Each structure stands twice: as structure tokens, then as C-alpha cells.
UniProtKB/TrEMBL annotation:
InterPro entries: AB_hydrolase_fold (IPR029058), Stereospecific_Lipase (IPR053228). This is Lipase. PANTHER family: LIPASE B. Pfam families: Palm_thioest. Transmembrane segments: none annotated.
């Protein structure tokens, strides 16, 4: 009798372990069942930074259109100062609408400053990993910026929700950067400037697992500030080298300003 019980118990344990293993495999298989094709260029969503000024991205948008891309401008709620989780959910709605309109299998996202954080939130929390092909962030403080932390302390009445979330120790930043910073699905590209006084420390703009590039790698004498990034020749050259049909790469033949 005791032998039968031990045999039964062993069988149950084996089946339980097998179920866990199979379950794990099923989750992985489901996640990778339809990987995002990297050679099919779809539409591009452009997400502005804090303040929501789409005009600041006019040259980026022009470069994308000149490259033959279908460009969708994603106007943020509350001028980009509201909860970034809500902004990420809105980005998801625009993405789904865009895919229905274009019948494309995937799309790219270009996010400037806070817009890059919103894009990452969408990928990690709102299903963007299944439909985003490339995510290019321009001067985005992926691990928070000291500027927001100071504003929260020195001028709390002028630091709304998004400003608070951009502080390095915010709950949003901790949650966003827990685990894999570049989850499977899209390929990530970051570009920043070592002279950007708004995104500090400068390493905050980089992501583990991404193609990380600074303006100064190609133009050593550049003094590009945060508001100048979207017109910088290195950033504009990335439109084709990072968002083309081939693997993301550093641009070549850049004429430094």
C-alpha cells in the first residue's frame, strides 16, 4: 500500500513539474509565435516630448517622408504632461488604428525625449512588443533625469505627473527598467548628445541591448543641446540607417554641422 502511494505521489509530482515546464515553453512559444519581421517597413508613429510640441520634430518628419514612410503624428494628451501610462495607452490606440488603415503587419516608433519613454512603456506594458518593428528614441532619459528630480523638489507646483515620473527614483522608472530593458519584439536604437544638459547623467539615455549612439561618436566637436537634437545631422541620418529594411546601423557619410 505504501509503495503504491509513493508511486502515485511520484507520478503526480512528475506531471506537475512537466506541466510547469510545458507551460513555460508554451508561454515562450506563444510570445515568439509571430515574430516581428524586420525587413518589412511599415508606417512610422512620431511621439513628441514633454510639452507635446510636434513642431520640434518637423525636420524628423520631413526626413521620414522623404524616405517614403507613412508618418503618423501622435498628439499626446494634456500636452505630454499627464501620466505617461495614459500616454502609452493612447499610443497603443493610435498604433492599432494605423495598422487597420494601412494593413501593415508592423510599424516603427520615433520618440523624442519623453516620447521615447512613452514608446517603451507601450512596448513593455501595452502590447507594443507584438507590432513594433523598430523603436528609435532621441534624447530620452530612460533611467530618469536629475533635472526632473530637482524640479520636483524646488518647484513642485510646476512639476506635474509626467515631470514627477521622469525623476530617476520614480515608481514608473523602477517598473519600466525592471528586468529586460529591451524586450523581444522590436529592435531598439537610442541617440543622445554628451552635451545635453536636460538629460543627465548622459548614460541615462542608453539601454542595455539597444544600438546606442551619441552624436559625438560621428561629430566629435558637436555641442548639440536637447532642443537641437531633432535637427542634428546625425539624428536625421539615422532615419535611414536605423529604420531601414536592413539591421539598425550607425549612419555613414554624415556632414557635421
Amino acid at each position: 500500500m505504501h509503495s503504491r502511494r509513493r508511486t502515485l505521489l511520484t507520478a503526480v509530482l512528475v506531471m506537475a513539474v512537466a506541466a510547469v515546464v510545458v507551460g513555460g515553453v508554451l508561454v515562450v512559444a506563444d510570445r515568439n509565435k509571430t515574430p516581428v519581421a524586420q525587413d518589412d517597413r511599415g508606417p512610422v508613429l512620431v511621439v513628441p516630448g514633454y510639452g507635446g510640441r510636434m513642431e520640434s520634430l518637423s525636420l524628423v518628419i520631413s526626413a521620414l517622408k522623404a524616405d517614403g514612410r507613412d508618418v503618423v503624428e501622435v498628439a499626446p494628451k494634456a500636452q505630454g504632461t499627464g501620466d505617461m501610462r495614459g500616454q502609452a495607452a493612447n499610443l497603443g490606440r493610435v498604433a492599432r488604428k494605423t495598422l487597420r488603415r494601412t494593413h501593415a503587419p508592423s510599424l516603427d516608433v520615433v520618440g523624442y525625449s519623453e516620447g521615447g519613454i512613452v514608446a517603451r512603456l507601450w512596448v513593455k506594458k501595452y502590447g507594443g512588443d507584438r507590432i513594433a518593428r523598430r523603436v528609435l528614441t532621441i534624447g530620452s532619459p530612460h533611467h530618469g533625469t536629475e533635472l526632473a528630480a530637482r524640479a520636483q523638489v524646488e518647484h513642485p507646483d510646476r512639476c506635474p505627473k509626467a515631470c514627477q515620473q521622469l525623476a530617476p527614483d520614480s515608481d514608473l522608472m523602477k517598473d519600466l527598467n525592471e528586468g529586460d530593458e529591451t524586450p523581444s519584439g522590436p529592435r531598439f536604437i537610442t541617440v543622445s548628445s554628451t552635451t545635453d544638459a536636460a538629460v543627465t547623467p548622459i548614460g541615462t539615455a542608453e539601454l542595455t541591448g539597444a544600438l546606442n549612439l551619441t552624436v559625438q561618436e560621428l561629430c566629435p566637436d558637436a555641442l548639440t543641446q536637447h532642443t537641437q537634437l531633432t535637427s542634428d545631422p546625425v539624428v536625421l541620418a539615422l532615419i535611414t540607417s536605423a529604420l531601414g529594411s536592413g539591421p539598425p546601423a550607425k549612419p555613414t557619410g554624415v556632414t557635421c554641422a
